[in-house]
Automatic annotation (TrEMBL):
UniProt keyword ATP-binding, yes or no: no
Alphabetical keyword list: Signal
Keyword Signal set for record: yes
Ranges annotated as spanning the membrane: none
Native source organism of the sequence: Rhodococcus gannanensis
Domain Biotin-protein ligase N-terminal: 27-120
Recorded superkingdom: Bacteria
Residues in the signal sequence: 1-20
Protein name: BPL-N domain-containing protein
Length: 242
């Protein structure tokens, strides 16, 4: 009888519509491995990306980072923060868990210090290579750790972004990474690459920076607030785009 009723309801258009699937979940780290405001800026570009992520903050005063928490997520995002040493001290207890989750199919996004942490010395060891300090390279467009706006090439087009002691990425010769951006001098500034069954996307410059970052540091934001480039990093990583 129940089957007959359902069949009739379906024929008459009386079955309730299936509920839409919720947006994918992005975990955004917030804690001592970040500086105030960076987590919220990363959350905003994830929310406004074409994938329209819903956000859950994780860290010591938010949702704990556990295998169960990671299992619910599509993305783990590591925002910018203090020095690499201090960030690693805060994140080292979670390193194996995050690495295993990415290898099993998760997506890691790293912004500035989050990009450094994707490397190996120290870090999560998620890259086919390692990271190094761009500002220390000869001819760097910003040769110190001050905040600045500076040019780079993103997919071959000139752009300017907010820099503050960003990493560059030193990859092995036979890497299969998608290089999204390069610094003045050709050093890799942003990329996406597979790791196990998962994917890693990292940027040295702060593509997620909004107007307030520039204003707070006495910089002109016009033309250098580029959430579209952050969205490119996100979508290229999560959807394995070329």
């Amino acid at each position: 009888m129940a089957v007959v009723i359902l069949t009739v309801l379906a024929a008459l258009g009386g079955l309730p519509a299936a509920s839409a699937a919720p947006p994918p979940l992005a975990l955004v780290y917030r804690g001592p491995a970040t500086v105030p405001g960076t987590a919220e800026s990363v959350a905003e570009v994830l929310r406004t990306s074409p994938s329209r992520f819903r956000i859950e903050y994780v860290g010591p005063t938010d949702t704990p980072i556990t295998p169960e928490t990671l299992s619910r997520a599509t993305v783990f995002a590591q925002p910018g923060g203090p020095s690499l040493r201090r960030a690693w001290e805060a994140m080292k207890p979670n390193a194996g868990m995050i690495r295993d989750w990415v290898a099993a199919g998760g997506n890691y996004l790293g912004f500035c210090v989050g990009g450094y942490l994707a490397g190996a010395t120290p870090g999560y060891n998620l890259l086919p290579g390692d990271t190094y300090q761009y500002s220390a390279t000869p001819g760097a467009s910003v040769p110190d750790t001050r905040a600045a706006r500076s040019p780079l090439l993103w997919r071959g087009l000139t752009a300017e972004l907010y820099f503050q002691d960003p990493p560059a990425f030193d990859l092995v010769p036979d890497h299969r990474a998608t290089v999204l951006a390069t610094y003045v001098g050709g050093q890799i500034a942003a990329l996406a690459v597979d790791f196990g069954r998962g994917r890693v996307g990292v940027t040295g410059p702060h593509a997620e920076a909004d107007n307030s970052w520039f204003v707070d540091d006495g910089l002109i934001p016009f033309g250098a607030v580029r959430p579209d480039l952050a969205h490119d990093l996100i979508e290229t990583t999560v959807h394995r785009l070329p």
